[in-house]
Amino acid sequence: MGYFLSYYTYISFGCWVQNMLAAIIMLIFICFCVHFQNTAGQFFSSGHTNNWAVLVCTSRFWFNYRHVANTLSVYRSVKRLGIPDSHIVLMLADDMACNHRNPKPATVFSHRNMELNVYGDDVEVDYRGYEVTVENFLRVLTGRLPPSTPRSKRLLSDDRSNILIYLTGHGGNGFLKFQDSEEISNVELADAFEQMWQKRRYNELLFIIDTCQGASMYERFYSPNIMALASSQVGEDSLSHQPDLAIGVHLMDRYTFYLLEFLEDIHPASKSNMNDLFKVCPKSQCVSTPGHRTDLFLRDPGSVLITDFFGSVRKVEITMEAIHLTDPILQLEDGPMSEEVQEKTYSYVDQLPVSEIIHQKPKQKDWHPPDGFILGLWTLILLVFFKTYGIKHLKHIF
Amino acid sequence: LRRPVATFTFKRRRGQLAALSIAAVVIIVGVPLWWRTTETYRAWLPVSQIKQLAKLQLQLSADVEVVFARGTVTPEQQKKVPLTQTQEEEHAVDGDLMKWFRSYFSVSCFLGADESLHTLSESPCGSLVFYVIPELSLLLPKDTDVYIGQRRTALLRVSSQVGVGRTLEQLLAQLEPRIKQVLQVMSFSHTDVSAVLSDRVRFNPDSKEGIADSMRAFKSSPGYEITFSLLNPDPTSHQLHWDIEGAVQTYIQPLLTKLSPVANFSIDSQTLYYSVLGVKPRFDSSCDAYTLNADSLAHVINPVEARLGSNAASSNPVLNFLLYVPDAHHSPLKIQDHRKQEVPSNAFHSPRWGGIMVYNVNGFYEPEAELPVDISINMAEVMGVFLAQLRLLLGVQSSPPPPGFLVAPRGSSGLADWELDRLMWSRCVENIATATTTITSLAQLLDQISNIVINDNIAEQVSSAVNSLQLAVAELEAGNLKYALQLSKEAILASEKAFFDPSLLHLLYFPDDQKFAIYIPLFLPMCVPILLSLIKMASEARQKRREKLAKKD
């Protein structure tokens, strides 16, 4: 295109014949481009062929009900818009639906007065309870899982996958707390995304985080094609929405509540783009200031559809040709097969190898230096020795 | 009077010796011991070889044999035969990846009758034979200049004036553009290679068709799973029978057997009842059928996909082929393209997912027939469509040949030998590029994060991957396509195993202030008395020297 523009400026000094010729050439070129846009156009609007979602709730205990409800409502929306369960990795750190404090068992509500049960009948949780750790989360992202991991627990994305990553829980400046016992720092997250990029495990990534000081988590990203949204800036707290008096806890966080409301209006054929998503939950509704980061993203956010990440709109091509087959179908012979088939009897491995456990040798433990108690005890003994036999021996050391 | 002074100095000497010896033990024994016990085990990696590979300078060479039939060369030119020439072309992808294409032309003459050209022996994998036939030969129809055969041969028709008054080299130079054109179709080309490497290159606005092709075909993988599903939303009306095992054995298996150097395939099939498409078809009175237009096709796949199972045991990519028989109330169902024209195959496919075909059965029974009706599906028709979709999804190029070219029909396996060669070239380059990127980024990662433990098995995998890569590049240069592909597959397996080893998880991010916070309470109480005593000794020695100087004066 640039070549033609420069050519055009050159001949503007020339005669009108060349002028006309250039105009005709440009017209043809534009028509050609338009034609190309129509035939190959749908491929280049986004460049992805499949969608994945990784939804993580990192906090446990009954009073963090809202984090599980957050994650489950995003899960519901994403499923409704088309991403199948086989492409969603759902990690919930605690089981609220079957918690003994839940007055309505087998339900997780997201709206007051129990309007919407986001747990439903067909939720598929891939990582549950104590399996939700920083290590497992990073393993899922980078793909470094042990070979025995089933397909449903893996993120099998390729270089044409758009991935949505949603994190919620308690966080701080530069870290996110997992299970009340460990944390993931923003540097580790950025490194994990860089490893994903190196192995081309994503085409584009949308990162949404709903925690206190959430914007600090995306500060350190440096891989291309990542767009990030957070519910609050550094120094601000993300607040929860309304409590439900019957259940006794806060049901949702504000940012995710208004995000869910926004997503309810999206259907698989909708054309809303990311600029609308950035406007979700302004300060008047959210009290905290949501933030976003788009400098690493190649495309303009106004041209990115919501369904590029939250839904799964497949690209489709009409099959133009078919191969003409004329051979008749071979009749399979079962004769020789049945002779060779030796019935191999399979059986399950012992679920609990009791004999092995009983007769086990104690494991070789690594040697550790003595603990503080032992050290303190020896110090006491030494001091008593020097006290009884005279302080003068101490001066040999000093 | 003397004794107290002597004992005093003696004691002071003893104290100084004690302090010195403790300091010596700490520095000579303690510090190395601490260093050794806190360092991580890192096996040696061939970093320099990896850096060398990262430049990715590949040489792809194809052997082309040009055989002149009788009537195309003069006797003087015949004397020069056999002649060997090398053509080199340099192509760059994204600036720093260089590829050379080298073709060896070996020329020979065939003086037998034209008709026996077809009986000549076939050429090995990766090489091609072009037969140059005279203008008036009857082997080709009137308006075709080039005939591309099923095996690795092509016939070129050349006008009789070309060879007159020229040497053999000049004749070859005359024919070169036409030979190059045929090579673009039958063998690797710059667009193929750039399309394969398109993910290493940032969004490149050139060669849109190539990128669309690369988005459609599955990435190179050691194995694929193919699932055939029959969707019957209306079992009360239609009782469907399909001989899937026989059809797979007859129609699909030959293609997969031919593709076995490229990848392994596992096939399974299933029947789903009461599964509907997610889109409501509209009745079109102009063609008296229900229609699905092209825009709504994109929403058909998702509701169905939730109900398709997959083999949980492997992580191979899955190709799904669905055969949908519409229910009695919505028959016949036709697919329309963007221009509202009927699609003859009545099928569509989705890149990197699979294909769906709609099979109408309302013509097989009378409207008053007793339900449910037994219907036997014509597997040849169905498999013809699925085979075409399978070819596209696996990356067999589908661009139409240039005008004047005639391509032979595909044969029972559905894949010509030269198409297989093209696929092997692109897979080989893709594997080598991917394995190189994996190894390079792994080496970079291990270099950056000094805390990661590198076990012996990872170092072994990396070395074997580097070895295989070097061998694969060498084989590509020599033109042995089959060995190069095998080696590239081994390289990619080893590199993926090394990169995705579970022990390489980096959870060891320690900011510097945390490191200080750990070590200071341990070492400071020990080092302070030692340092203070050393300082005291040094100041005493200085004082003594000053006294000595003062005494001298």
Largest sheet of chain B: 7 strands, mixed
Q: Give the number of helices of chain A.
A: 11
Uncertain residue segments of chain B: none
Arithmetic mean pLDDT of chain A: 83
Q: What is the count of β-strands of chain A? A: 11
Low-confidence blocks of residues of chain A: 1-13, 29-44, 335-339
- Distance between the terminal alpha carbons of chain B, to the nearest Å? 27 Å
Order of helices and strands of chain B, N to C?
HHEHEEEEEHHHEEHEEEHEEEEEHEHHHH
Shape of chain A: extended
Radius of gyration of chain B: 37 Å
Q: Please tell me the overall pLDDT of chain B.
A: 82
What's the topology here?
The complex is a heterodimer of chains A (398) and B (553).
Chain A: H1 2-11, H2 16-46, E1 50-57, H3 65-80, E2 88-92, E3 127-128, H4 134-142, E4 161-168, E5 171-172, E6 175-178, E7 182-185, H5 186-198, E8 204-210, E9 226-230, H6 254-264, H7 274-278, H8 283-286, E10 291-293, E11 317-318, H9 335-340, H10 354-358, H11 372-389
Parallel strand pairs in A: 1-2, 1-4, 2-3, 4-8, 8-9
Antiparallel strand pairs in A: 5-6, 6-7, 9-10
Helix pairs in contact in A: 1-2, 3-6
Chain B: H1 2-38, H2 47-54, E1 58-68, H3 75-79, E2 83-93, E3 97-109, E4 128-134, E5 146-148, E6 153-158, H4 168-186, H5 190-196, H6 208-216, E7 223-232, E8 238-241, H7 244-258, E9 264-273, E10 282-284, E11 289-292, H8 301-305, E12 318-324, E13 333-335, E14 347-350, E15 354-358, E16 373-376, H9 379-394, E17 405-407, H10 417-448, H11 456-478, H12 481-499, H13 512-552
Parallel strand pairs in B: 1-3, 1-4, 4-6, 5-17, 7-9, 7-12, 8-16, 11-13, 12-15
Antiparallel strand pairs in B: 2-3, 5-6, 10-11, 14-15
Helix pairs in contact in B: 1-13, 2-10, 5-6, 7-9, 10-11, 10-12, 11-12
Report on the structure:
The complex is a heterodimer of chains A (398) and B (553). Chain A has helices at residues 2-11, 16-46, 65-80, 134-142, 186-198, 254-264, 274-278, 283-286, 335-340, 354-358, 372-389, and strands spanning 50-57, 88-92, 127-128, 161-168, 171-172, 175-178, 182-185, 204-210, 226-230, 291-293, 317-318. The model of chain A is unreliable at 1-13, 29-44 and 335-339 (pLDDT under 50). In chain A, 32% of the residues lie in helices and 13% in strands. In chain A, the strands form 2 sheets. In chain A, strands 3-2-1-4-8-9-10 form a 7-stranded mixed β-sheet, covered by helices on one side. Chain A has a 3-stranded antiparallel β-sheet with strand order 5-6-7. Chain B has 553 residues and is an alpha/beta fold. In chain B, strands 2-3-1-4-6-5-17 form a 7-stranded mixed β-sheet, with helices on both faces. Chain B has helices at 2-38, 47-54, 75-79, 168-186, 190-196, 208-216, 244-258, 301-305, 379-394, 417-448, 456-478, 481-499, 512-552; strands at residues 58-68, 83-93, 97-109, 128-134, 146-148, 153-158, 223-232, 238-241, 264-273, 282-284, 289-292, 318-324, 333-335, 347-350, 354-358, 373-376, 405-407. Chain B has 13 helices and 17 strands. The interface between A and B is large, with 67 and 83 residues. Strand 11 (317-318) of chain A pairs antiparallel with strand 14 (347-350) of chain B, so a sheet runs across the interface.
